[in-house]
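Lecture notes, part 5. Sequence design as translation. It can be helpful to think of inverse folding as translation between two languages: the language of shapes and the language of residues. The source text, in structure tokens, appears below.
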């Protein structure tokens, strides 16, 4: 059983930075994918970024160049470095995990954290 716990959310002004963490307990087989999704109030949950067990990563166009996903396998932790934050980035951020390859469709992810709130003020 895999359990995910996010941390690092908070309130920042536009242009600021935050780093989200997702602590992973349990273990995946060698081929897996970890991702970040977000959901703003009144909107659908959307994919932000993913990274495979082998280190292949991708980010959504809306955050490309500002957000970076990474993982520390030794610490069993997933990260999302968020720079140049904009008010439109305000949302609850979720980490998610799945076995096998990466995909940006939330319904394909089996494991989810409880979410962490990010609020960006102008």
């Amino acid at each position: 059983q895999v359990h995910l716990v996010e941390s690092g959310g908070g309130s920042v002004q536009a242009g600021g930075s935050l780093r989200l963490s997702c602590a992973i307990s349990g273990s995946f087989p060698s081929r897996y994918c970890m991702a970040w999704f977000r959901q703003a109030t009144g909107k659908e949950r959307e994919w932000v970024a993913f990274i495979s067990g082998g280190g292949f990563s991708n980010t959504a166009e809306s955050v490309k160049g500002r957000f970076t996903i990474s993982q520390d396998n030794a610490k069993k932790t997933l990260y999302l470095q968020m720079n140049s934050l904009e008010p439109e980035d305000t949302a609850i951020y979720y980490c998610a995990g799945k076995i096998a390859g990466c995909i940006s469709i939330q319904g394909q992810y089996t494991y989810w954290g409880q979410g962490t709130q990010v609020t960006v003020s102008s």
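The translated text above is only one of many valid answers, since several sequences can fold into similar shapes. The mean pLDDT is 96.
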